Structure formats: C-alpha cells, structure tokens
Amino acid sequence: MVYHLEDTITDTLNCLEEKIFIIDLDYKVAWMNDSAKGFIESLKTYFRLDKAEDLIGTPIARFHKNPSYQEEMLQKGDFPIDMQLVLFNKFIARLVVKELIVKEEKLGFILTWRDITEREKEKEKTKAIINELSTPILPTIAENTLLVPLIGELTLERMENLTTKLLNECLNYQAEYVIIDFSGITTVEDPDLGQEIQKLTTTVELMGAEVLYCGFKQDMVKNMVTLGIDTNQKTFVSFRNAIRYVVSKLGKPS
Predict the structure, then answer these.
(1) 4, 11, 52, 105: which could join 37 in a potential S-S bond, CB 3.0 to 4.6 Å?
(2) How far apart are CA 107 and CA 85, in angstroms?
(3) CA-CA distances (angstroms) from residue 241 to 60, 237, 252?
(4) Which residue in 218, 158, 238 sits closest to 193, CA to CA?
(5) Structure confidence at residue 78 (pLDDT)
(6) Mean pLDDT, to the nearest integer, of 94-102?
(7) Which of these, 57, 59, 52, 61, lies nearest to 33 by C-alpha position?
(8) According to the model, what pLDDT value does residue 5 have?
C-alpha cells in the first residue's frame, strides 16, 4: 500500500498538522503522517503498542465498538464520512474519511483525525456554567426562605440538576419556604415535566420546607394544562405576593 504513494504525496501529508491515516482496502492502517505518529506515540500505552509504527497493519475494527457497521459505511461509499469517536472513554475525536484514489486507482481511504477532547471538555464546562446561571438559588429578605427564579426553557435535565442543587441549599440555609418563580420561563413542552416538577416539590417538602409557586404566565398555564401537568401547590401571581405570604406566616410585618 505504502509503495503506491509517491514521495511528493507523503511529503505533503507530513507537512500537515492534522493527523492523517491511510487505510488500505482490507481496512487496516497502512500509513500515517508524522503528526499522527507523534499522537499515537503519546498514546501508545492505551493502544498497547511498543512504538507508534506498530500500529501499521492493525485492523481499524479494533477501535470501533461496532466493526461491522464501520465496514458497512466504508463499503457503502457515501463519502466524505464525518463522525465522532470516543476512544478508551477518555479521548474524543472527529474523523473525516475520504476515498484515496491515485491515477484513477482506488488504493484505500484517507482518514483525518482531529482531536476535540479539550473542545468537548470546554463545551461541558460552558454547559455547566449556563446551567448554574440559569437555575440560581437565592436567599430572600424573609428568614429561612429561598427563591428559585427559573429562566429560559424548562427541560428535564434542568429540573433534575435543580433538584440536587436545591436539596443541598435547603440544608445549608435550613429553609422553611422555597419560592419557585416561573415568570422567566419561555418554553414548557415535555409532558414528563409535570412529574419532574412534582418530584422536586415532594422532595423539598420531605426536607421540611413548604414549596410555593409564582409567576405563571397565561400561555404557560394553558400549555401545562394541555400537557397534563397538575399541581396542588399554593400559587401566587408574583414573587412579591409570595414573599408577603411568607412574611405573614413567619409573623413579621410586611
């Protein structure tokens, strides 16, 4: 396989920073450029190799959890193939596969490997920050009372994250009341949200705090009814009304 490639081609591929692998028609690694060699050398313990060059001749099926599907894609010929691959549950790569045709002869496939592990980690960090900012839990002027102002789209993932976070804050603040403000919510579409909201409420009440709802918009109420989301919780038009109720219950002047 390697001998079919002219020196000018291999020299050009070696100048690229991207990791280039050539796969032969038997679906084995036939060649890799210098950037790819350096990458494999840094991961040789994961690949169980003594040196990067030992990867040559290795079937690519070894690196895919579903080898038959992988070969089927290559045989189907719908190029370029763009996919994302996770190796060893640690490294994330974007792979682009094209046919390698030289002088009208198909020699195999050329695979470009882009390591996006760090980029995916940054995306997860950004997502975590957004989740944190979109579900703040704030103390209020009323003693032992927390405010949860929900903003944006209400999803199952957000509700699950909120439940865990809110339980910890209830313990930290010894909360007696939790006011959940829905006035900033823009979308409620998942029919399972009703069950998740009720789960959140029940869990918080088991911690000894009373849960109050406020800020429901007219279209949101209609949507919740359509989705079958039902609640028997005490509700208020606004946070102001809810906090007045709490203050009166605590025996303090409003």
Answers:
(1) 52
(2) 24
(3) 64, 7, 15
(4) 158
(5) 84
(6) 87
(7) 52
(8) 62
Query: For residues 14 and 146, which has the higher predicted lDDT (pLDDT)?
Result: 146
- What pLDDT was estimated at residue 120? 64
- Using CB atoms within 10 A of its CB, is residue 4 exposed (0-12), middle (13-18) or buried (19+)? middle
Q: Is the Cβ–Cβ distance between 231 and 214 less than 8 Å?
A: no
Contacts made by residues 53-61, CB under 8 angstroms, sequence distance 24+: 55/29, 56/29, 56/30, 56/31, 56/32, 57/28, 57/29, 57/30, 58/28, 58/29, 59/26, 59/27, 59/28, 60/23, 60/27, 60/28, 60/29, 61/27
Query: Looking at the whole model, is its pTM more than 0.70?
Result: no
Domains (ranges, CATH) in the chain? 2-118 (3.30.450.20), 128-248 (3.30.750.24)
Token readout for 225 is 């009814």
Q: Are 227 and 191 in contact (CB under 8 A)?
A: yes
Question: Could you read off the pLDDT of 193-232 as tens digits, one per residue?
Answer: 778 888 889 999 999 999 999 998 887 777 767 766 666 7
- Are the beta carbons of 14 and 33 closer than 8 angstroms? yes
- For residues 20 and 131, give the distance between their C-alpha atoms in angstroms, rounded to a whole number: 37
Mean pLDDT of the chain: 83
Q: In the β-sheet with 177-187, what is the strand arrangement from edge to edge? A: 138-139, 145-153, 177-187, 210-214, 234-236
